[in-house]
């Protein structure tokens, strides 16, 4: 077949397949998910900011940054996903597709690094409790967060440069609900072997190294917890880690499924991608408030005292 030489100016997102009779239901469902994600994460941010005991502690600095990332990822993906459940062609300008892919990988990899920092923070708090205030200062935690943002932006820039250095001259139908690397690469008018290899290695190295460090932290944490003699002490130590373990599992399993296996173009990819893009940002505030006594206490104090809110 003869190749069309005009380069594309827009892509069409096919979205996720769904029964037409459920269009309104899905639209309302994702609208609610989006609103609750923004409100839930905003509430955590305000709570951490308003409570002096929380915003002086590294764990809650990390939690505040996680809320910012969740609000960002949700805003990049979910409003575009909701357009899938409206009538008409779902086109996205070429520049919009580039921006979506960049910010998704920038924020996604920053989140990956942040989960690792949170695991390291829990490791120091439980395994080195006496040295923790010296080892994990507010200044160090701010530097670590800054490092995660910089590493994430480099990762995002690398992925977007590699993906869009290739020519796209038609077809323009992205078989996905947002511009992500595997779906966009299928439309390139050039050999994508190098891209697929670099994507696999780059994302593989980021995900695998972060996951390995988190796993190592938790093996050491569990060993330390099992040495605690009182049942109450063990329960409290586990409860500070439970939320983080839950969130990491919900985040990593779908990511590994999407990026770290041979190209299959399975319809399950779309379903798996809903977790890191829409479901995890929605669940994070719930998991952290329900599993964390200090956040619950700070929320109650803040809601009882409107004066605290006015000071924010």
What does this 3D model show about the protein?
The chain is mostly helical and 312 residues long. It has a single domain (10-311), classed as Rhopdopsin 7-helix transmembrane proteins. 75% of the residues lie in helices and 3% in strands. The protein has 12 helices and 3 strands; from the N terminus they run βαααβαααβαααααα. The protein has a 3-stranded mixed sheet.
Structural class: mainly alpha
- Mean pLDDT across the residues is 85
Give the strand content.
under 5%
According to DSSP, the number of beta strands is 3
State the helicity in percent bands: over 70%
Give the domain tally: 1
The CATH class is identified as Mainly Alpha
Low-confidence stretches: 1-5
Report the CATH superfamily.
Answer: Rhodopsin 7-helix transmembrane proteins
Order of helices and strands: EHHHEHHHEHHHHHH
N→C terminal distance: 63 Å
Q: Determine the CATH topology.
A: Rhopdopsin 7-helix transmembrane proteins
Question: Mind telling me the C-alpha Rg?
Answer: 21 Å
Query: What is the level-2 CATH architecture name?
Result: Up-down Bundle
For this entry, what is the oligomeric state of its chains?
Answer: single chain
Described by strand count, sense and barrel closure, the largest sheet is: 3 strands, mixed
Query: If helices are DSSP runs of H or I spanning 4 or more residues, what is the number of helices?
Result: 12
Gross morphology is globular
Q: Which sequence of strands runs across the widest sheet?
A: 2-1-3
